[in-house]
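Help needed: design a sequence for this.
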């Protein structure tokens, strides 16, 4: 397996995190030889060490924070300290995060760790690179704090629609995604809560029509409604292959990247 995504945690919402009904660890990716951790929530270090040597902490290239909420950023500092051996390693991992995570009242990064890493501030709809791996941010999400989704574009386009309320701009921003990973927190929508619900995801999938969708970041009502059942229902309704993530689940990307590469070659020809 060359490229893969490993969901170290799948919890979303305070209740599921507090009771650890699902792990609140982040999402690890190995793409084009790069090791990336997205949103290291509480418990990430424990789950990550547990997954060693399959995913080797000392070879981390980048950490990406989508926003500063505690369920996405709690283990950031301890992970930076561990992977840089307290600043004694030569290689400096990269940190990509919105300005709010780095500076200001609710920053999450401790000052003493700043020199151990290369910091890049994320902005909306901007291109970034981790060596030869390119990614792009989405439009700014509607989530109460500065939040951006992430889109990797190598052989295939893999996008993470992280925490947000639904708004039509999501469709345009994430259009053309081959694999969509969506933080689906609520079964039924509630006006004041800035998260996606099942109806929102149905709309997104019907419009974007990705090849595959992984739903994750489940709140209490999603667990109660049975995440697998909801995934099957969404698959049937939208004709998109929808899978509900489980803690520790591995998504093998090789097959997708091969398929997309072949398609691109046909187009080029
Ligand atoms: Zn969240
Ligand atoms: Zn959030």
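Sure. Designed sequence:
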């Amino acid at each position: 397996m060359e490229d893969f995504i490993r969901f170290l945690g799948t919890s979303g919402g305070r209740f599921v995190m507090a009771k650890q009904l699902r792990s609140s660890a982040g999402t690890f990716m190995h793409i084009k030889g790069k090791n990336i951790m997205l949103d290291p929530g509480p418990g990430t270090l424990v789950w990550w060490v547990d997954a060693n040597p399959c995913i080797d902490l000392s070879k981390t290239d980048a950490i990406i924070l989508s926003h500063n909420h505690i369920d996405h950023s709690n283990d950031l500092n301890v992970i930076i300290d561990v992977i840089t051996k307290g600043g004694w390693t030569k290689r400096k991992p990269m940190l990509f995060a919105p300005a709010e995570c780095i500076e200001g009242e609710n920053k999450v990064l401790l000052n003493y760790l700043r020199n151990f890493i290369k910091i890049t501030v994320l902005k909306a709809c901007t291109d970034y690179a981790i060596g030869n791996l390119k990614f792009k941010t989405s439009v700014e999400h509607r989530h109460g704090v500065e939040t951006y989704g992430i889109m990797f574009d190598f052989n295939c386009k893999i996008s993470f629609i992280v925490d947000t309320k639904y708004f039509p701009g999501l469709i345009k921003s994430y259009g053309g995604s081959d694999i969509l990973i969506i933080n689906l927190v609520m079964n039924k929508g509630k006006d004041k809560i800035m998260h996606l619900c099942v109806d929102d995801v149905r709309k997104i999938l019907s419009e974007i029509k990705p090849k595959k969708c992984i739903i994750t970041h489940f709140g209490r009502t999603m667990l109660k409604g049975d995440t697998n059942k909801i995934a099957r229902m969404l698959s049937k309704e939208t004709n998109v292959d929808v899978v509900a993530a489980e803690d520790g689940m591995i998504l093998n990307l090789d097959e997708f990247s091969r398929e997309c590469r072949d398609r691109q070659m046909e187009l080029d020809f």
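The chain is about 30% helix and 25% strand.
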